[in-house]
Description:
Blueprint: E1 2-7, E2 15-20, E3 29-37, H1 40-46, E4 61-69, H2 73-76, E5 78-80, E6 89-92, H3 103-107, E7 139-142, E8 147-150, H4 163-174, E9 194-197, H5 201-212, E10 218-222, H6 225-234, E11 238-241, H7 247-257, E12 263-268, H8 273-282, E13 283-291, H9 305-310, E14 314-317, H10 325-335, E15 344-348, H11 353-359, E16 367-370
Parallel strand pairs: 5-8, 9-10, 9-12, 10-11, 12-13, 13-14, 15-16
Antiparallel strand pairs: 1-2, 3-4, 3-7, 3-16, 4-6, 6-8
The structure holds zinc ion (2 copies).
One zinc ion binds near residues 102, 115 and 116.
Amino acid sequence: MQVQAAVMPTPGQIEIREFEKPTPADDALLLQVDQVGICGSDKHMYLGHTNLNFPVIPGHEVVGTVAEIGKDANQVMNVMGGPIKVGDPVTVVPGSKNCGKCYYCLRFPHRPTLCTNRTIYGFSNCETPPHLTGEFSEYTYIHGNSWVFKVSAGIPEELRVLTEPVAVATRAVERAHAPGVPQVGAGYGIGNSVAVLGCGPIGLLVVAVLRSTGAGTIIATDIVDSRLDMAKNMGADVVINVGETSPEQRLEQVQDLTSGAGADIVIECAGLPSVFAEAIDLVRRGGKVIEVGHYTDSGSVNVRPHQICNKDLDICGVWAYPQIQFQTALDFLERTRAPLKDLITHHLPLARLEEGLQMLGEEGVYKVVIEPHAN
Ligand SMILES: [Zn+2]
Ligand SMILES: [Zn+2]
């Protein structure tokens, strides 16, 4: 039997190709892809902003059904909520298990995304069998070094495809927690004011996570009014349109809302260098800036290091998330009251992936979901 998959032979091109349906090895499984979300990073890949070993089958935000499973897979893989069997709904972490042997694994095992030997579904070369290394495909091959999470029945079916972006959003908020012994005013805590800059899917999910984790005033900024409306629906208290205000006006507004100090936490979700610079302006002295928007390199910006020094700032990057973060994401999806289903605006068959990539970023488009088995 042949499997249809969307191959990116080089940036800017998508071809639907057929591959022989592989039989999983003893430690692997074959996943029927039910839904896979298009991520901003897929669009960056399409636009040539990433340096990958093409051809690549993109797609890394998957929910699917176990189609075939090797006899040792439950023992070899990291399986959560298992054992898993044919017919089970699962989601798979894009990043493989870390190697355990590189410089970072040996010294910082609690920070698995620093590992330099991970493979990542949706970002790997697909030239050699079993080929199906990404998830914009009818089936995908899940190798033994994977983390697989069984999806519990309590998680609404339409929200399951958000597991991966929610892992990103929960990780971004966790990065604002204070390390070590908590002290009053150090790091994100109950009642803190947070400014979320940029209201694409990640920014909106960050707002929803903040609302349910006890944030105080949540301020969201974007240039598109409908995204700001969506931010309000997700739980933002105050929204500011950056197209209608000057940086000085925004600073004044944020200070007015925070006893003159600035936001306790600022989370940069726009992926624009100028917005990172603004985050440093908007945060209070002793506050935290979280940088989660720049998964690809979109250039540089002037900052004044004196501000960082004088404000005694913490600035934290977020590079994906530890694999176990998927459990946090699934628990959040099971319990949240935020209207997350409003974030899933389009469903397209595999043949229309290119159209989906092109529409990403347009007004009214949040998460576009590919359904490879739909017509
Ligand atoms: Zn993603
Ligand atoms: Zn490693």
